[in-house]
């Protein structure tokens, strides 16, 4: 209902972008952003390897997600659990994801352990904490520094004691 106003800029008539009314279709796009969960993504695995020594399957994951910023690890974990017939989804570990410049494709690593016992044995503690299998131990910086100092002192004492026995 409001007609677009015209602004004079150095003698030229230029329509003001702020005052132009939007059509009903354009208003629909402005008011309702697209839902991210509706868009599909494609998962590809490559360099798939069965590692019997560490009781796991390991691979590189390529996720194609055009028009979507990222795919959550929980969603990927759920899809990989169904793809590879994993009994417990907690045995799936995903990490190291990097999104390519421009978006639309992410690459990361995946590990599927045979059972939780093997996962707890071989996975680093920080990854177990991320996946909710262990609790994070909160230590202050001062405690860590004191512990490190004590360890250095013991090492130095043992070294000196051995040198004196010669």
Automatic annotation (TrEMBL):
Question: Which is an annotated GO molecular function term of this record?
Answer: structural constituent of ribosome
Mind telling me which Gene3D superfamilies this protein's record contains? 3.30.70.3370
Entry's InterPro entries?
eRP_eS24_sf, Ribosomal_eS24, Ribosomal_eS24_CS, Ribosomal_uL23/eL15/eS24_sf
* GO CC list: ribonucleoprotein complex; ribosome
Q: Which UniProt keywords apply?
A: Ribonucleoprotein, Ribosomal protein
Domain of life, per UniProt, equals Eukaryota
Which Pfam families does the record cross-reference, listed alphabetically?
Ribosomal_S24e (PF01282)
Basic and acidic residues bias spans:
134-143
Q: Which SUPFAM superfamilies match?
A: Ribosomal proteins S24e, L23 and L15e
Q: Residue ranges of region Disordered? A: 134-166
User: Where in the sequence does UniProt note compositional bias of the Basic residues kind?
Assistant: 144-166
GO BP term (any one): translation
Q: Which HAMAP family match?
A: Ribosomal_eS24
Q: Which family does it belong to?
A: Belongs to the eukaryotic ribosomal protein eS24 family.
Tell me the PANTHER family matching this sequence. 40S RIBOSOMAL PROTEIN S24
Q: This protein is called what?
A: 40S ribosomal protein S24
Organism from which the protein derives: Volvox reticuliferus
């Amino acid at each position: 209902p409001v007609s677009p106003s015209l602004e004079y800029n150095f003698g030229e008539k230029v329509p003001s972008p702020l005052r132009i009314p939007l059509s009903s279709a354009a208003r629909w796009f402005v008011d309702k952003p697209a839902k991210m969960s509706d868009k599909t993504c494609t998962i590809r695995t490559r360099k798939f390897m069965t590692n019997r020594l560490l009781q796991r399957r390991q691979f590189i994951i390529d996720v194609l997600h055009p028009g979507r910023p990222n795919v959550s690890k929980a969603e990927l974990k759920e899809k990989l659990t169904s793809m590879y017939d994993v009994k417990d989804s907690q045995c799936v570990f995903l990490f190291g994801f990097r999104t390519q410049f421009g978006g639309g494709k992410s690459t990361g690593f995946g590990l599927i352990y045979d059972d939780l016992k093997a996962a707890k044995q071989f996975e680093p503690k920080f990854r177990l904490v991320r996946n909710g299998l262990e609790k994070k131990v909160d230590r202050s910086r001062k405690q860590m520094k004191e512990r490190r100092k004590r360890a250095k002192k013991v090492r130095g004492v043992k070294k000196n004691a051995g040198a004196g026995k010669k």
